[in-house]
Sequence to fold (339 residues):
Amino acid sequence: MLSSAESKKSSNPDWERDVLNRLAFAALNEQRRARRWRTFFFILTFSYLFLISWTFMNLEWGFLDELDGDIITSDKKHTALIEIEGIISTDSEVNADQIVASLRNAYEDKKTAGIIIRINSPGGSPVQSAYINDEITRLKAKHPDIPVYAVVSDICASGGYYIAVAADEIYANESSMVGSIGVLINSFGFVDAIKNLGIERRLFTAGENKGFLDPFSPINDKNVAHIENLLQNVHEQFIATVKAGRKKSLEARGQLELLENQELFSGLIWTGKQAIEIGLIDGIGSSSYVAREIIKVKKIKDFTKRPNYLDRFAERLGVVMAKVLAQQLSSATNNSTMQ
Fold:
């Protein structure tokens, strides 16, 4: 007698083809399901990035210009606000191009009664800080009727203070950190470490002193003297800028002699309360206080130029689309290889 399987084979000579067809349809269904999930996650990611981009564009385009609940109307004066938040460098959001553009926009607005530069920065590039300081000085001379004030939040040190001294007056919280008027270069030396590990250092240069900052080579007195001279030169520029920026304010208070205290320029940092006593700042106050009590216009409009989040969104969207396309191509290649 024939078994049930053998009877099916005899009754359906194309049974192998049927099995292959079922397997093929099952694979196609699995691909369709995977494609649906990829499409779903793509739409979800797109929506998420769109919402983030829209939020930041609102901030960038000035739709959220209210502070402390005050809505800016077209027929009233306002206090312009410019934020300096973070390390100052060419490759960060706090760079001379961004801040200078913000300053120019604030000064050119006919309804600007005064400008507040709110600083929360540990410092950074002396070059970028100098560019910003120079531009504040230039714009002040061009628009003498628009006062500019620096307000410190948490910290205003080194390059941050380099920028602050260009303002007419500086305000801070009692617990703010202010100062660090100095210059440094730091690195590490691994000469003994590679020697103990049996590593041979091979450094080729054209120029006797080209590799003088190489951490794997021993330093010599000549190079040390050169670095110290370089730092001293930049430090002297910093000190001159501080004295020029603080002179008018301290002279008006009869405290010009405070600038002769060399400890100010030693690189130390002080609290806001201490900074008043030694002449680094002019008073205690927040941005709202300065707008309300000093400028006498409490409505604040943010002129801080933000990065172009639309471009970032487009870039991220392109990356996501490229990944999805690469996955689909990879999946199609694998399937064709298996078949």
In short: Confidence is low (pLDDT under 50) at residues 59-74. The CA atoms of residues 50 and 303 lie 24 Å apart. The first strand starts at residue 78 and ends at 85.
